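Cont'd.
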Amino acid sequence: MTEILKTEGLSRYFGAVTAAEDISVTITAGEIVGVIGANGAGKTTFINMVTGYLPPSKGSISFGGNPIKGLGPRKLMRKGLTRSFQIPQLFLELPVIDNLAIALAAAEQKQFQMLRPVRTPERLGSAEEILEQMRISQYRDEMVTAMPQGARKLLDIALAMLGSPRMLLLDEPTSGVSLEEKYTLMDTVMEAVHARGLTVLFVEHDMEIVRRYVTRVLAFANGVVIKDGPVEEVLADTKVQELVTGKYHEHKNPGGDA
Amino acid sequence: MHLDKTEISLIGVAVATALAAQLSPDWLVFTLTLAISTALVVMGVVMLMRAGLVSFGQGLFYCLGGYAVGLGGRFLGITDALLLIGLGVIVTVAVAMILGLLMTRYREIFFAMLSLAFSMILYGILVKSHGLGSTDGFGVVDWTLLWLESETADGANMALLLAIGLALTIALFLNRYFKSSIGLACEAIRENEVRVEYMGISRQQVLYINYVLAAAVGSVGGSMTALAAGHVDPTLAYWTVSGEFVFIALLGGTGHVAAPFIAALIFTLVRTYAVELAPNAWQMILGIVLLLIILFLPKGIWSLFTRKKGAAS
């Protein structure tokens, strides 16, 4: 399999605080990788470093065999590495269709056009297609502020998928979404991911979601990767259970006393 | 070229105004010319506002446009109005291209204060320039428009027709600009800069282009004011003048290309009558009008039209 993302010794310090330390990971094309860990374990810091949101203190990152450390979000997007956010990053006071239209114009590198309307029939067609795929067509002409949280998450991911990415990093795609909606949302996202043949790295707290949708897991604790491997193997690991999933404690103290 | 409904309406209103001006008294023609010129500068403020930036220094470009007309006539011997306006645009764009490199790095109050600072620097320089009349300024040469001379022809009417022509051209351009990729990118930047970057759009480049265009539009307004009034002085760059542009932009709202024109006309008329009715309290009348607009029409006068549309649908 072809290697798509590789990090070596990736670290990030905030003064005396170590947010991520010596993260060395290789992801191959087509993998769906889950990133788990307690709050403050370094998951989002890792995603932020890979996607150019946060410069690493040391270490290297390569994407598709080319070094990408130091590149900003714009250049990474052009290389095919994109992301969604834990808190959806959308244009709240614009209609949903315009959120997609501007993303499509940017993907075509036509963001500086001054006299042609951004809403071309081709772009509207593509926007409607992805809205349908993400099952949020009913919000086409609504302002984003009128959308519920689950639909906003889907729009955020839809925006990240425009522009032919090769790899998608999802930061807690189901956070803030109701229990009933979670699986529908993930089914929709995964359908779109498979249709595009994307490699996915996603941060998730819900272990049932991880079990159901990923093949490989990176378990983070205290800024380091404590376990990397197939999903069942990682979730069964005692250290992971102790520091991440909490099952080890539950097992040892069924009454819940720490 | 296909024209949309707004464009047809703009052309219709421009033609109707030009025809009505033929029957109007000189004072109204002059007031209308000033209102249109002001609206052009306000249009620049609106362009910036759509990108989430508030400029308290658009008077800088207004003044550059005005002084380019004055100086072009006085020192370069240019009398053709279009050439003088073109000269103003060239000078303004050159200045804006330099300032824009710095300005587009700032947001919110920092952008507002920095824009104000630059306009006040120009004001300070002009006040100290005795060769340019210091605080009194100087007169603009008698200008011509193609083959017509403003002195022999009906000067006020000519100025209005020129203002209408320029305003229509700019309004038609901006109507398309606001609906284009870059126009929407400006609004996207106002809404969420992080997402804009992750879409592969350079915020800096978009804001830079928008800033320079807004300056050019403001310059045309300044040049038109100078041609109509026949005089320029440093107050064109004074911060209260820039404040008036922001006032009018808030009055009209940013929802439509026609909003600044309606707001500028209302502002000019309210001010004219407020000064006449209450010479010592006219600022208070303007203040109350703005307060009422902010309270009841936070998106400006234009929201009256969109509300009506919304209610109808």
